[in-house]
Hints:
The structure holds three protein chains of three kinds. In chain A, 73% of the residues lie in helices and 0% in strands. Chain A is mainly α. Chain A has one domain (3-160). In chain A, helix 2 packs antiparallel against helix 3 and helix 3 packs parallel to helix 7 (137-160). The termini of chain A are far apart. In chain A, 57% of the residues are buried. Chain B has three helices and no strands. Chain B has one domain (3-85). By secondary structure, chain B is an all-alpha fold. Chain B has helices spanning 3-22, 26-46, 50-85. Chain C has one domain. Helices cover 67% and strands 2% of the residues of chain C. Chain C is built from ten helices and two strands. A two-stranded antiparallel ribbon of chain C has the order 1-2. In chain C, helix 2 packs across helix 3. The interface between A and B is large, with 41 and 40 residues.
Amino acid sequence: MNGWILAATVVLAGGGAAVLWGVTSGPMSRRVVAQNLATSVACPALLLLAQGYDRPAYVDLALLMALLGPIGTLVFARLLAVDLAGDRPRAGRESPACRANDGNFASGPAAWGPTWAAAALGAGVVVAVCVATGPGRAMVKLLVTGALLIGGNVIASRALSGGFEGVRGG
Amino acid sequence: MADAVIVVALLLVAGSATAAVAVRDPARQALVLSVLGVALAVLFTVLQAPDVGLSQLAVGSALTPLLIMLAVRKVRRCGRTGDETR
Amino acid sequence: MSRRLRLWLLAVGGAGVTALLVAAGLDLPSFGGPSHPYGDRAVRASLARHTANTIASVNFDQRAYDTLGEMGILFAAVLGCVVLLRQARDEHRAEPEPAEVARPVRRYALIVLPVALVTGIYVVAHGQLSPGGGFQGGVVAATALHLLYLGADYRALERVRPIGLFEASDALAVCAYLVLGLTGVLAGTAFLANTLLPYGTFNTLASGGIVPLLNAAVGVEVASAVVVLLAGFLDQAVEIEEQQGS
């Protein structure tokens, strides 16, 4: 049991409990934000586990989760657009989402707090694992995974807070 | 002590599976099933089965929610047009 | 039988099953112990055939016949869905409504689509080296294609997805798997025997003999099957409506 696996356990325990609580209670806006958070918590945990078990092959799992997780959130953002329209996850005043929409948000829980926290966690874990791996092809794969994870997380949150306003039946 | 991460993963799977059964509305159930898929993928990884974890991830993160949500949409549309013709 | 009696019966049966399960569970060998008779033999055979990923060796070399059955199951399931979800006589196709998607989401979808497609092909091609293989990579590639629906709208997806082509490639991939198996018979050994290609250099792309070829066949089959399956669901959910007043 080394530090990497311990860190992964802490991330999984804390993040997992938050995600479970968010996805089973509250309005629909909180539930979809929690589903988005699940990807952003599990992917850094997988990277930490790959480093802790000393198996670089497990980074493939993190790469695919960073790719497919945001796509799963986009599925919900698009196909629940009507449900979410009356119950929008509230964007912060300084976020770009507020400028694009005319501010008709219902008072839901703030979505961008968890998003930026998860992005920071992902960035920190990717930097730590890159430092431990050293330059080479493996580091390129880690950086691609990190970029997909953080970019996907931010775009999925953007989609949840008003990205599909004009979608009705399609 | 590597058992601690296995215990955490098992608890997450048990919790999300129970929640998936307890939530009754299909759209909300789809959200919980997506979380259950992620928890299962993590469980398979800590049990040193990455191939199975990759299969679970590929199927459970985008494909299964898409199938469930499309079925929910179809049922809602049929219900709506049924009300309009009445 | 009254409800109370049924619940009592359930409780008694459940208690019995629980007792037996606990007794059996306590008798199981502990996780991660040193005794793995099947695992030792499987790993030894996989390394002898220069396949780095033992799971791929078991799936596509030692038990390739079982994988043929699994591919057949997926093919039959998709066939059943296509039959069930086809347009019936009292239904008609409505134009899918155009969608207004936010520009960051659209740009993300258009950037990630080729990345995900390449990742899917990478997972299929490296099946004999790292975790993954035909099934996982095929599902990823098919999901990547549907980013066009999620990020734009259904008409954009329909333009790049000629359904007949995908149905044909599904069937052709199953046939390819069978033909690769028959080469073993023609060479004088057994069906799906790993004698077609040399085993190659360990831990490189050209290793494992027939494993990469079977991986490719399964990858194409799964990707096409998932696209056809989702096409049936999408048509029903987005386009097909019941005839009004018929």
